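Propose amino acids for all 644 sites.
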């Protein structure tokens, strides 16, 4: 940005980029974590500051910016005055940027990066790949053949990820952007479209759709946000930017009152849109984001049969409230006769209606049968987050969680749940501090005493207002380890004493398919196991699915009435949407769980719900849409279960 004197001063985005880079370089140099974090925090604060920070430093005393302490403030001042920073230039000579990029490889920390550089001269991803392939990494102190394989896997994971985000990351970025754009003059509405609106399990770029009376102002504000690294495209009605340490964001502006087809177009998926365009064409219309345009009629004025359907049974645009433009009255092209007729709609429901279709939920728009179902009138009534009355999988600081049992229970109660099942890990999962039999008994006593308090408060009328009429109870469960030899961690008599048991596989993940499948089936078949948690055992970015005979798993789960979990952690999303849909065809039932290890993660239920919707699930298939009494009845109803 140029000042009147022609001197160039750094923008917020430029400042933020420099401080992020300093944080990275210091990390590679082995600086203390709190120091590197301070630089990243300051960078974020500058990126989202409403001030033009350099300008403010030049114009008066340094402004107070949260997260910016004295040392960093001095550096901003130097950058604002001179456009340079000696500290930064010196660091860049010491730490090559390509080395910093190695930090992005899963499983590689700053100490390793430093060692690779100092002892092997490795500076780039390619250097590292070559060394791992050649088998020379294992000669380094503290490294082995296994480390080499880990490095190769890490590089592969990094490259296959192709910059896709988790849902939670996409949501956080969108919330910030929407807040920063909310007060642009003339803005009527702005909302996410694309894969985020469809809640795909990972998100490529972000898409925003806006209605505004003053498009230039919105485009201007959008492209000059402090968090913008570069502007990819900028036009009168759209723009695209890349965010600092973030994704590309596309912004589209639609004319007020014509959102229907714009929303459909930019929500996608492409495959869904292709189907709709085909239907429109058969009716004599071409569908784009702008609306339905009447196709020139071949061979005279007579409309085809399907064309008549557009005017007749499909209701037509005008009947559904659409508006018609074009024709001589609105002034088409001067030559070549009247402009073609364009139908636009304010809402998606009306725009679908033009094709004779009901509204199709965004999560279904993947061309996986939703168009056929819409035509046949057999679209499922998808469950919603509000249908969930509790959560069947959560952890406390008794195993590998962060918050106490009481904190987790209180947080669930404040969210209006009627139950939370506490499912800390069992004894053999030592890495997650699995509970010994003794600690199980102690925990049971704590749960009971908390519930006595909740019950008393409900009776006295002092429970939180959010408490549902049936009250809130913490249920006692466990996340039961399925051992490598297919035995379960606790004996049946103990399992039977829990309110609910969730079983899962964490160890010996590389066993052959028949063994892994047998382990999972053994857990399903046990009458005391109610739910199989994260059945595929995957982490989206870093850990492959268990190699299971899925149809065998689904069939056994359906037969025994064992629920399969839709784990809501956005790193897991397990079962996936496609697998859950397949399981539901087998007649399986499900739970949607948070697997929360801290209070905030209780809200993972929103992602689990999204996957359930993408799997076409209705509420009757999901056990935790039931009341607490009905849930407990379901648990005790599993054939062969003994009373506790
Ligand atoms: P992503 O970003 O990879 O997670 O997936 P989407 O579905 O968000 O894809 P994106 O961002 O490329 O486009 C958003 C929507 O806009 C997409 O679902 C359909 C529509 N769209 C984008 N580009 C095109 C295009 O070139 N042709 C058509 N027909 N539609 C497009
Ligand atoms: Ca997108
Ligand atoms: Ca896009
Ligand atoms: Zn868990």
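Proposal:
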């Amino acid at each position: 940005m140029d000042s009147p004197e022609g001197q160039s001063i750094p923008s917020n985005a430029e400042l933020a980029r420099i401080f992020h880079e300093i944080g990275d370089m210091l990390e590679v140099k082995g600086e203390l974590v709190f120091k590197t974090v301070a630089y990243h925090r300051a960078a974020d604060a500058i990126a989202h500051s409403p001030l033009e920070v350099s300008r403010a430093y030049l114009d008066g005393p340094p402004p107070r910016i949260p997260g910016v302490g004295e040392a960093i403030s001095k550096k901003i001042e130097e950058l604002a005055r001179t456009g340079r920073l000696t500290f930064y230039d010196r660091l860049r000579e010491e730490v090559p940027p390509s080395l910093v990029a190695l930090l992005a490889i899963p499983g590689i920390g700053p100490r390793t990066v430093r060692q690779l550089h100092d002892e092997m001269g490795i500076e780039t991803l390619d250097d590292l790949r070559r060394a791992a392939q050649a088998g020379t990494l294992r000669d380094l102190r503290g490294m082995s053949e296994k480390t080499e394989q880990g490095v190769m896997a890490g590089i592969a994971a990094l490259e296959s990820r192709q910059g896709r985000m988790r849902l939670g990351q996409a949501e956080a970025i969108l919330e910030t952007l929407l807040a920063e754009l909310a007060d642009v003059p003339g803005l009527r509405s702005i909302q996410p479209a694309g894969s985020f609106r469809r809640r795909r399990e990972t998100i490529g770029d972000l898409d925003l759709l806006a209605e505004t009376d003053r498009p230039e102002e919105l485009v201007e504000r959008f492209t000059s946000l402090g968090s913008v690294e570069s502007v990819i495209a900028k036009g009168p009605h759209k723009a695209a930017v890349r965010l600092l340490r973030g994704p590309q964001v596309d912004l589209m502006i639609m004319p007020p009152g014509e959102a229907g087809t714009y929303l459909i177009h930019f929500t996608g998926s492409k495959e869904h849109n292709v189907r709709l365009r085909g239907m429109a064409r058969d009716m004599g219309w071409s569908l784009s984001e702008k609306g339905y345009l009447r196709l020139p009629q071949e061979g005279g004025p007579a409309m085809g049969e399907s064309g008549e359907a557009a005017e007749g049974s499909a209701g037509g645009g005008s009947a559904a409230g659409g508006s018609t433009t074009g024709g001589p009255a609105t002034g088409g092209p001067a030559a070549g006769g009247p402009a073609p007729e364009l139908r636009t709609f304010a809402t998606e429901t009306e725009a679908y209606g033009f094709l004779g279709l009901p509204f199709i939920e965004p999560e279904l728009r993947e061309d996986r049968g939703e168009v056929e179902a819409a035509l046949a009138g057999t679209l499922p009534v998808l469950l919603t987050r509000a249908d969930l009355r509790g959560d069947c999988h959560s952890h406390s600081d008794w195993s590998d969680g962060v918050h106490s049992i009481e904190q987790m229970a209180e947080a669930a109660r404040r969210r209006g749940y009627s139950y939370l099942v506490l499912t800390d890990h069992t004894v053999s999962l030592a890495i997650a501090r699995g509970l010994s039999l003794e600690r199980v008994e102690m925990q049971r006593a704590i749960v009971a005493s908390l519930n006595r308090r909740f019950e008393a408060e409900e009776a006295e009328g002092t429970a939180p207002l959010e408490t549902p009429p049936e009250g809130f109870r913490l249920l006692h469960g466990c996340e039961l380890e399925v051992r490598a030899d297919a035995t379960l961690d606790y004996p049946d008599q103990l399992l039977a004493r829990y309110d609910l048991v969730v079983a899962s596989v964490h160890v010996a993940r590389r066993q052959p398919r028949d063994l892994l499948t047998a382990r999972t089936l053994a857990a399903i078949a046990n009458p005391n196991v109610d739910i199989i948690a994260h059945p595929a055992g995957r982490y989206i970015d870093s850990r492959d699915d268990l190699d299971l005979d899925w149809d065998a798993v689904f069939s056994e789960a359906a037969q025994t009435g064992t629920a399969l979990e839709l784990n809501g952690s956005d790193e897991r999303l397990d079962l996936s949407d496609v697998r859950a849909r397949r399981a539901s065809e087998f007649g399986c039932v499900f739970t949607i769980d948070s697997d929360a290890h801290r209070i905030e993660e209780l809200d993972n239920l929103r992602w689990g719900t999204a996957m359930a919707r993408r799997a076409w699930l209705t509420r009757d298939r999901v056990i935790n849409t039931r009341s607490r009494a009905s849930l407990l009845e379901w648990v005790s109803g599993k054939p062969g279960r003994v009373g506790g």
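The CA atoms of residues 481 and 506 lie 7 Å apart. The radius of gyration is 29 Å.
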